[in-house]
Each structure stands twice: as structure tokens, then as C-alpha cells.
Specification:
With 150 residues, this protein is of the alpha+beta class. It has helices at residues 12-29, 41-58, 91-112, 123-143, and strands spanning 4-10, 63-68, 77-83.
Length: 150
């Protein structure tokens, strides 16, 4: 059976940009909220490493190769996925966007809490779980022989 590879390359600046933009928005709504900045990139990178480890466990059946390099902005995270079908030209961009969102939401949940003030799951924790489910749905289409993207 033929298999196809899909390379997803996530840059550190993509993740930091998503985290700091959301943090600035939070601070604008409530000045008492702490603000995450690009100066805290090493700390954010540690949280992203945890998200990366979790995501790799979820993608284990599809991972061909993977790497996490906190010292390289351009090749911060590289994932090579093995697929049964030829991926559409849009799949790489869609998967990268969802993975960047997942990493950012995980980091935000780590910094702002997994629970909100009422004790319910925070919006960031729910967004992390939604992004992981989105990735699983994209890959489940491949596993079931359905077109990856229309």
C-alpha cells in the first residue's frame, strides 16, 4: 500500500504571536490581568513543549518523524505525518493553523488557569481540546478513506 508524507513546520514566532495577541486582548479588557510578552518566549516555549508531547502521543499512529527545537525559530516544531491518501494542497496550511492554535491555547490555559473563576473549564482549556479534536477529525478522514479536504 502506498503512503504519502505531509510535513508540517511550525515556527516559534507563530505561536508567540498568537499567545501575546490573546494576552494583550485580555489585558485590554481587564488591566488587572497579567500580560504575556515576547520577552517570555522561553517560558512560553516550555508550555508549548508540554503541548507538543501531548500532541505527539495523540498523533502516534500518523507520525513518521518529529522534532522539537526550542533554539530554532523556523524549525521550532516539525511533524512528518504518514497518510494513506495523497494530501490536498490545502491540508498542510489547515493543519499548521490548527496546531499553532492548539499550542497557543495550551500555553494560555497554563498561564491563565485551566478553570475559570466559577470553577468551570476555562475557555483556553476548551479551545485546546477543540483543536486536538479538530486534528483528530482531519486525520480520521484519511483513516476512513474519505477525501482529506474538498
Amino acid at each position: 500500500m502506498n503512503t504519502y508524507s505531509l510535513k508540517i513546520n511550525v515556527t516559534l514566532s507563530d505561536v508567540i504571536g498568537a499567545v501575546t495577541a490573546e494576552s494583550a486582548w485580555r489585558h485590554a479588557l481587564d488591566p488587572n490581568e497579567p500580560t504575556l510578552t515576547s520577552d517570555q518566549a522561553p517560558l512560553i516555549g516550555r508550555k508549548v513543549r508540554q503541548a507538543y508531547n501531548d500532541l505527539c502521543a495523540r498523533l502516534a499512529g500518523y507520525l513518521e518523524l518529529n522534532s522539537f527545537n526550542p533554539n530554532a525559530n523556523d524549525h521550532f516544531v516539525v511533524l512528518w505525518l504518514r497518510l494513506r491518501q495523497r494530501p490536498s494542497s490545502r491540508l498542510e496550511g489547515v493543519m499548521k493553523g490548527v496546531i499553532v492554535d492548539a499550542f497557543a491555547q495550551f500555553a494560555l490555559a497554563a498561564f491563565y488557569g485551566r478553570r475559570d473563576k466559577s470553577g468551570e473549564q476555562s475557555v483556553y482549556n476548551l479551545a485546546w481540546r477543540r483543536a486536538c479534536a479538530h486534528i483528530a477529525v482531519l486525520l480520521a478522514r484519511d483513516a476512513n478513506g474519505l477525501p482529506l479536504l474538498p
